[in-house]
């Protein structure tokens, strides 16, 4: 019998890989496929990043103490409700490891790829619920809950469409979810939300012991390359999430940069306001061309191109623009500077709206 080498988990064979763009040079042109901040961090943050070089021979604070306290002060919660991690993807994985046992289920909407991949890697039975148009179908998600459900992920704003959950919808949803099921509100793009009545996970967390919230420093704060994010939950849940973290997982550089970024909050908000204004302008421009784009509350817009998604992505690549196609469905485009956004509108004008 031939030696096939080490035995590996058979259930990982068909776990989907995370795809981000048409396969072209990822380091040329405009990167509009990962929802990054197109601007580098502010000067004070850059100075703290540079200072990390002098202490990079030391292990980081495993509890991210100073950053934890800054976050707690910023959002007015107790520090023992804050979990700092190496970005929200790492925190998502920690949550799954803290909740999922053999045969347990995770429920989540179609759209964000990481829920499916990380759930499968954690050994969960993944229950991916189709969208209702461009929005999450909370009623169907609640109906999918069984006695083996341990965690539900709700994303607001939702990637890739940018739509939000309204507070009354979320409260009605929570009324149908058992209290022993953890509901995680993924709010990576919360800084860009301007829609009145949109859910605020931090406020819900104060009322519901089974609600946790994930937020990030990758988007509005411009620290995607350093990997820093956080979760807010009850103290008992927070401690379980910490238990599943890799030791020293948040680097010295990430901790110093994120701490400085919190202190630069006013500058961050001004940058976000500028981007939101440009996002709204781009959406108006696309609608004037007949495109039924959903009202994105994130730092990207959604183009319902259907079967033309890959062709449009290649056309953008020809102009030096990387965008994120979802084959057969549409394309997600990060909002950039006005001239680049105008170029997106010019390219999409060559395609018939649905």
Automatic annotation (TrEMBL):
Organism superkingdom: Bacteria
Domain Aminotransferase class I/classII large: from-to ranges: 47-335
The keyword Hydrolase is annotated on this UniProt entry: no
InterPro entries given in the database record: Aminotrans_II_pyridoxalP_BS, Aminotransferase_I/II_large, ArAT, HistidinolP_aminotransfase, PyrdxlP-dep_Trfase, PyrdxlP-dep_Trfase_major, PyrdxlP-dep_Trfase_small
SUPFAM superfamilies associated with the record: PLP-dependent transferases
Keyword Protein biosynthesis: no
Cofactor section: pyridoxal 5'-phosphate
GO molecular function, one term: pyridoxal phosphate binding
Keyword list, A-Z: Aminotransferase, Pyridoxal phosphate, Transferase
Family: Belongs to the class-II pyridoxal-phosphate-dependent aminotransferase family.
NCBIfam families with a match to the protein in the record: PRK03321.1
UniProt-recorded name of the protein: Phenylalanine aminotransferase
Organism: Paractinoplanes toevensis
């Amino acid at each position: 019998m031939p030696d096939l080498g080490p035995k590996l988990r058979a259930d990982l064979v068909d776990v989907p890989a995370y795809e981000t763009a048409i396969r072209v040079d990822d380091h040329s042109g405009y990167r509009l496929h990962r929802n990054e901040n197109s601007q580098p961090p502010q000067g004070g943050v850059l100075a703290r990043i540079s200072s990390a070089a002098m202490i990079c021979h030391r292990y980081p604070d495993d509890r991210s103490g100073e950053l934890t306290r800054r976050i707690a002060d910023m959002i007015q919660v107790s520090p023992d409700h804050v979990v700092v991690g190496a970005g929200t993807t790492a925190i998502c994985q920690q949550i799954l490891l803290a909740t999922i046992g053999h045969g347990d289920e995770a429920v989540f909407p179609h759209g964000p790829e990481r829920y499916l991949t990380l759930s499968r890697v954690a050994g969960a039975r993944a229950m991916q619920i189709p969208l209702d148009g461009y929005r999450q179908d909370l009623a169907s998600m609640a109906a999918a809950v069984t006695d083996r459900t341990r965690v539900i992920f709700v994303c607001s704003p939702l990637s890739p469409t940018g739509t939000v959950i309204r507070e009354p919808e979320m409260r009605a949803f929570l009324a149908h979810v058992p209290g022993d099921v953890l509901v995680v509100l993924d709010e990576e793009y919360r800084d860009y939300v301007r829609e009145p009545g949109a859910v605020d996970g931090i406020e819900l967390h104060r009322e519901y012991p089974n609600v946790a919230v994930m937020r990030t420093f990758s988007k509005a704060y411009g620290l995607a390359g350093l990997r820093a994010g956080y979760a807010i939950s009850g103290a008992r849940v927070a401690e379980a999430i910490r238990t599943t973290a890799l030791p020293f997982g948040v680097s010295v550089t990430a901790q110093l940069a994120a701490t400085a970024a919190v202190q630069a909050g006013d500058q961050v908000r001004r940058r976000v306001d500028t981007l939101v204004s440009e996002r709204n302008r781009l959406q108006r421009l696309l609608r004037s061309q007949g495109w039924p784009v959903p009202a994105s509350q994130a730092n990207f817009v959604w183009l319902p191109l259907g079967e033309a998604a890959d062709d449009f992505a290649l056309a953008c690549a020809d102009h030096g623009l990387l965008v994120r196609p979802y084959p057969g469905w549409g394309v997600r485009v990060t909002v950039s500077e006005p001239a680049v956004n105008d170029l997106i509108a010019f390219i999409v004008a060559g395609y018939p709206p649905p």
